[in-house]
Amino acid sequence: MRKILTFLNTNSLEIIVNLFNHFGKKMNNVKKFFSIRDLENLSGIKAHTIRIWEKRYDLLSPERTETNIRNYSLASLQKLLNITMLYNNGYKISKIARIKEQDIPYMVKEIVAKNSVKNHAINAFKLAMINFDQTLFINTYNSLLSERSFREIFSEVFIPLLNELGLLWQTDTISPAHEHFVTGLIKQKIQTNTEKLQHLEPTKTDKVFVPFLPENEIHEIGLLYVNYEIVLRGYKSIYLGQTIPLENLKDVMKYYDDLHFISYFTVVPTKDQVHKYVDAFSKIARENNQTSKLWILGRQNQYLEQEHLPECVRTFNSIERIVEEL
Questions:
Q1: pLDDT digits (tens, 9 = 90+) for 238-296
Q2: Within a domain: residue 71?
Q3: Residue 279 sits in the same domain as residue 186
Q4: Do 181 and 225 lie in a common domain?
Q5: Domain check: are 50 and 78 in the same one?
Q6: Which of 200, 221, 312, 201 is nearest to 260 (CA)?
Q7: I want to staple 237 with a disulfide (CB 3.0 to 4.6 A). Which of 130, 148, 230, 268 is the partner?
Q8: Residue 5, CA atoms < 13 Å, CB-side half-sphere
Q9: Model confidence at 7, in pLDDT bands (50, 70, 90)?
């Protein structure tokens, strides 16, 4: 799960860089204009800085509404993302301003060749999300897959992308529809890669894992990926998925001993209910004569006091840590 530096060959680079040209052919029924706050959230460049770059270097040319509010085109967004790539790789903005506009994409291509495609791919995925463009998402993913494993793509690209989505959603740059669109595609990729492994019989029999989410919890991507890692390592996994009442776990306990339940507490149980939840799990396990364990991921872990946890319960602060225990 640690980041591994890899480099793309020339053909793969050409595919990645040229993905942005795809938008020139698909301008109907898509978001065509962006506010300066949208640009700030998508590029990471402060709005104040963007205004300075406009005024001092004439790097962007926004349109203005009747009330003098800036509106930026999709082409401006694309240009800013490319400028950001140069800027974050040591180019001074005064130097970037002197570069011919048509040469900027080629310089970005050189940076990608020297370093990693990660940032460029994340930008491509964000543009695919904004425009509900499944083709761009799949082409970007396939280009990455030509040089990287699925595990590397998930850790180096999808996790940073998902972290950014949370911020974009909170700042109203994207809507829930955007978030559901792109997370749905990421789920497909996890499930596809998991399915490739599931036709093989488990090779390890000392543990059986049961990934599930608590009742009313629907944030599934992290759990899906943990399930992929379980299967990859040769364990049997009984994937139950979203919004599972605790009582339903009894049905699985009837068939297997020494189960390892894995759950992701993103929203529920709530702060006030999280200790009651783990105590209820412990009680169910005892009543069914089980030595079952419960491993928990997610931000609600912060409300669990370690000294008051039942012996059968463990918390983990990252997917990497839980994968190390498999």
A1: 999 999 999 999 999 988 878 999 999 988 999 999 999 999 999 998 887 778 999 99
A2: yes
A3: no
A4: no
A5: yes
A6: 312
A7: 230
A8: 4
A9: very low
Tens of pLDDT, residues 287-303: 877 789 999 999 899 99
> Residue 1 and residue 136: Cα distance in Å, rounded?
26
Q: What is the pTM of this model?
A: 0.68
Residue 307 is classified by DSSP as: G
- Checking if the pLDDT of 22 tops 60, the result is no
Q: Is residue 4 part of a domain?
A: no
- What confidence tens digit (pLDDT) does each residue in 75-88 have? 888 788 889 888 98
Beta strands 241-244; 235-237: pairing state: unpaired
Same domain flag for 180 and 308: no
Q: How many domains does the chain have?
A: 2
Q: How buried is residue 303: exposed, middle or buried, by Cβ count under 10 Å (0-12/13-18/19+)?
A: middle
Name residues whose C-beta falls within 8 Å of residue 288's C-beta, 6 or more positions apart in sequence.
250, 253, 254
Helix (H) or strand (E) holding 248: none
Average pLDDT over residues 154-182: 81
DSSP state for residue 267 in the 8-state scheme: S
| Position 11 pLDDT exceeds 60 | no
For residue 258, how many other CB atoms are within 10 A of its CB? 11
Pull the structure tokens for residue 132.
């509900």
Q: Which two tokens stand for residue 210?
A: 């049961």
Query: What is the DSSP code string of 44-101?
Result: ---HHHHHHHHHHH-----EE-TT--EEEEHHHHHHHHHHHHHHTTT--HHHHHTS-G
Structure tokens that stand for 117 in this block: 């495609």
Distance of alpha carbon 77 from alpha carbon 38, whole angstroms: 9
Domain assignment of residue 138, given as a range: 10-192
Are both 52 and 141 inside the same structural domain?
A: yes
Handedness of CA 195, 199, 203, 205 (dihedral sign): positive
Radius of gyration for the alpha carbons in the chain, expressed in angstroms and rounded: 23
One-letter amino acid for residue 29 of the chain = N
The Cα–Cα gap between 326 and 315 comes to 14
